[in-house]
Amino acid sequence: MLVLRSRTDGEWIERALAHRAALLLEQAHLERKAASAALTFMFTYQEFAAIQQPLSELAREELEHYEAVLGELRRRGIPFTRQVPCGYFNRLHRVIRAREPERGLDAMLVSALIEARSCERMRLLAGALAGTDPDAAALYRTLTVSEARHHALYVRLAAECYPDHDVPARLAEIAEYEAEVLAQGPRAPRLHG
User: Where are the alpha helices (DSSP H) in 19-133?
Assistant: First the structure.
């Protein structure tokens, strides 16, 4: 079950559908960034043996998704280009506390919430595109399942690595913050905008 404190409204889906090429380009960038985040955790928190194998597998899966989205971009004639970040990630990362061990805990939970929000919005996209663009709908359905699993993985790893902390309570706090970040952010046609 996704731990989100707000739901995406219909206005977002309308904006997203009007900018499908940009959203697909963003998806490629997000998959690559998710792989990088998993690798960063592995290197930064080498003392946690429990995260090494699962995050290695997650990084590979994210890179497979990256390649799949690149293929979809090519198939549609959409060039892969640099994309200006939407600001969601930088604003969301401000909730991460500065000192360890809280920093590592918060970073894992922020990653969990990013995966949860992606899952929610990709599910909406898959549903909205089912009748008009079955290939894109199938891609988003596949990604939705993975994002839900990744969300649960980050929450589970946080609980395993930080047993002395109240992980559900901190997750709820960060989820509230994530909802505020979305509410205050620009209403851009982006997965996290």
Answer: 20-44, 49-76, 88-93, 102-129
